[in-house]
Amino acid sequence: MFTEPSNIAQKSGWIEVVCGSMFSGKTEELIRRLKRAKIAHQQVGIFKPLLDNRYHQNNIVSHNETTISASAVANAKSILELADAFGVIGIDEAQFFDEDILHVVEKLANMGKRVIVAGLDMDYAGKPFGPMPKLLSIANFVTKLHAVCMQCGGAASYSFRISNNTDQVVIGEKDHYEARCRSCFHA
């Protein structure tokens, strides 16, 4: 389990990335970290892409229905415009943002903010997804989570699409995807 760094100077910012497959608990971990920051009376700003409206238009909601209030934004630059009052910034579904998210996250961290980003590291084809590889490379802390393979029960790191849609972005959950281990994904 990730424990917040205690050896980083008070005014120093940093970037944390939580990644993994569908159903691995990325959003749940993001919410856990953000709630801990709120308990510590830190000012927390939470954002998600407008595109992700599976469970709620604005709130971030995990698959097991844990929820936290958020602002849905049209693009990454909007986060920068809204983040001044916050010391901790949470961003869910980062794979859906364009490359501007890299500049935004770096700028926020350089302003002394703690930035926590969650997203899929790979798409349904097992390929790096959107800006996530670059976010992983600039992160100070990386947490990769695993789901349970729906075929064999092993550690799953792939999001296997069970529908026939071949678009890279298909918003969905159990109706479109299941978690699979490497072996079952490639079988």
Describe what this molecule looks like in 3D:
By secondary structure, this protein is an alpha/beta fold. It has one domain: 3-Layer(aba) Sandwich (Rossmann fold), CATH 3.40.50. 24% of the residues lie in helices and 26% in strands. It contains five helices and twelve strands. Strands 5-2-6-7-1-8 form a six-stranded parallel beta sheet, sandwiched between helices. A two-stranded antiparallel sheet has the order 3-4. A two-stranded antiparallel sheet has the order 9-10. A hairpin with a 5-residue loop joins strand 3 and strand 4. Helix 2 runs parallel beside helix 3. The longest helix has 14 residues. The radius of gyration is 16 Å and the shape is globular. The model has no long low-confidence stretch (mean pLDDT 91).
- The helix/strand series, from N terminus to C terminus, equals EHEEEEHEHEHEEEEEH
**What's the alpha carbon Rg, rounded to whole Å?**
16 Å
Number of separate helices = 5
Query: What's the helical proportion of residues?
Result: 10-25%
Total number of domains? 1
CATH third-level topology: Rossmann fold
Which CATH class applies here?
Alpha Beta
CATH superfamily: P-loop containing nucleotide triphosphate hydrolases
CATH architecture classification? 3-Layer(aba) Sandwich
Average residue-wise pLDDT: 91
Give the distance, in angstroms, between the N- and C-terminal Cα atoms.
31 Å
Backbone shape: globular
**How many β strands by DSSP?**
12
Percentage of residues in strands: 25-35%
